[in-house]
Design a protein that fits this description.
By secondary structure, the protein is an alpha+beta fold. It has helices at 23-33, 48-60, and strands at 12-15, 40-46, 64-71, 74-80. It has one domain (12-80): TusA-like domain (Translation Initiation Factor IF3), CATH 3.30.110.40. It is 29% helix and 32% strand. Strands 1-2-4-3 form a four-stranded mixed sheet, covered by helices on one side. Helix 1 (23-33) packs parallel to helix 2. The termini are far apart.
Length: 82
């Protein structure tokens, strides 16, 4: 089984591939709120709309996007909690 390399190891992971907007960022935001500042969240998502909206909404909340990596039909968005 091959696991894609992530540039930064995540403290927590969240899979929102079954969610649709706006729930994709709602779930991401709730998880980020439970994390300590500086912790890293790896978010697995699927589809164009979440790929556009989750990183933008996280930036709007003051978090840093460390990377977006394609993984088959999904993407992994790595976010550092503000």
């Amino acid at each position: 089984m091959h696991t894609p390399a992530h540039p930064t190891p995540a403290d927590q992971a969240l899979d929102i591939t079954d969610e649709v907007c706006p729930m994709t960022f709602v779930r991401t935001k709730l998880r980020l709120e439970r994390m300590a500042p500086g912790e890293i969240l790896s978010v697995r998502l699927r589809g164009e709309e979440p790929l556009r909206n989750v990183p933008k909404a996280a930036r709007d909340e003051g978090h840093s996007i460390l990377g977006v990596v394609a993984d088959g039909s999904d993407h992994i968005v790595t976010i550092r909690r503000a």
